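Encode chain A's predicted structure.
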Amino acid sequence: MTMTKLKPLVFFGSGPVGAATLIGLTESGFEFEAIITKPRLAHHKGPMPVLDWTINHNISVFTPADKAELSDVFRTTSFMSGLGVVVDYGIIIAKSVIDSFELGIINSHFSLLPQWRGADPITFAILSGQKTTGVSLMLIDESLDTGNLLAQEKLTISKMDTAPDLTKRLISLSNQLLGEAIPLYLAGDARPYPQDTNIEPTYSRQLTKSDGQVNWGKPAEITEREIRAYLGWPKSLAKIFGKQVIITKAQVVEGESDGILVIKCTPGWLEIQELIGPSGRTMSGADFIRGYKR
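Encoded structure for chain A:
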């Protein structure tokens, strides 16, 4: 089956992962009847990745601001597509919208469901110290990430992976799985199956800025994971020598003499290898000591 014979899809997405997915699917030959994304609000000055992408593409774009407006779009507009795809959208999709697609809506969720249902599975996979994560292609329902699966693939988490690193690799895996599974599903050759009920579900949550405040009263191993997990946002903020810094790279060490800038945790020791200093410049722990220790 060639991509040119596939019916166009309706894509739901807003953020950078959504945009990367949209670009990947387009490069793989998929076409889209419509893009559903968040609107650009008056006070928002930053990028709107999916909305920005649509500017140079001749595709119908709809920008409902919330669940009710999204439902209104589908009540007043007739779409021909039998399948929707949602990645990094940020608005709850009502059952009436899901039911408007003959084959439902596929979501690419970046965990091995039922592990880490919820808003931030990548961060919590790193925080938990697990060695593997993955991508689950799921047909969404009204509940939180409980829908039947179309495909699932594992990915190893290295001891050096930060959230941005892991996100890039998961996007690549997700695009590959979507490219393989969507044609099979449209052709009736891929059948949805339930999530494994023998695995206890775990749940992630939306992070807040306060999560990034480093607590030296935690074990060194936990703090090191947080630094990797929070590198993109909310970042790991701490005071060292009375100076506010953002820690970007650290490693667990055996003792105070096992590094240049070593901090006592409870228990354990953490060497700060790289940080953003008060000047806003990224520097090594050694450079920070030379410039700021008095």
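Helices lie at 16-27, 49-54, 67-76, 95-99, 121-127, 163-186, 220-229, 285-292.
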